[in-house]
Amino acid sequence: MQDWPELTALELLVAVADHGSVSAGARAIDMAQPNASRSLARLERALGVGLLTRSTAGARLTPAGLVVVDWARDVLGAARTLVDGTAALAHAGGTELRVSASQTVAEHLLPAWLAALRQQHPDAAVLLEVHNTAEVVAGVLSGACDLGFVEGPRAPRGVRTAVVARDELVLVVAPDHPWTRRRSRVSADELAATALLTREPGSGTRVRLDDELRARTGRPAAALQELGSNAAVRVAVQAGAGPAVLSRLSVADALASGAVLEVPLDLELGRELRAVWTGPRRLTGIAADLVAVARSHPA
């Protein structure tokens, strides 16, 4: 019989991808470093795949590890749905809100928003799903969720919207990339001619970049490799696989630590983060309260 991987080990692996090292990932999930190293070693043995390359400089994800991280996110998302769903059953008769959010919002903004919301509605059950922007809008339109949060250059069609925050995209490279030594900004033409590590089509990050490059050069970004999460793209950049344009929110920690460096762009890549819903123009109840919280907590 197949031995299932431990969810805590998968959570740790994702944290390592998100925070750039085993020690930082362990701190993020409140696990001692020795236990973290043993947990990852057990996970590698259980899966039969090398997930990390270890050296005196630290540990980084292997190409197979990057793929496993994306799969692990899906598994952890399903586990959260199970836990949140059973919590909703335990609060039968209480307030329930189904929320769907794009990755950038879900990873970097929603945790603080939901913590503030719980102070107002301690008995409410919030069921959260994480998708790319196109999938969030589709879920709102189909009725699969009550409220969505998306990123993109323009308001989606067919839904009500409200701007809750603002963000910008930045060009990042590994510290030894040749662009770190240049004195001029990277132009739109140069960026469009460069193969980039990118998010998948349908993500707000990819749409914003493609729209800006089409407007300036007549062609979208050239994809060296498409990856399904901000963290996977960032880790690939750190590994020297190529440059990428990502949300500043998603690379703030990596920029602060020097794991990646920002290269100035001759483009304006600001964008708005929006709440989306259907029905009456004015939200009411817990959904309205969550949007108000989002507006009061700047990115």
TrEMBL record:
Q: Which residues form the HTH lysR-type domain?
A: 5-62
* Family the UniProt entry places it in: Belongs to the LysR transcriptional regulatory family.
Report the InterPro entries cross-referenced here.
Answer: LysR_HTH_N, LysR_subst-bd, WH-like_DNA-bd_sf, WH_DNA-bd_sf
Name under which the protein is recorded: LysR family transcriptional regulator
Keywords attached to this Swiss-Prot or TrEMBL record, sorted alphabetically, are: DNA-binding, Transcription, Transcription regulation
Do the record's keywords include DNA-binding?
yes
GO MF terms on file?
A: DNA-binding transcription factor activity; transcription cis-regulatory region binding
Q: Which organism is it from?
A: Nocardioides simplex (Arthrobacter simplex)
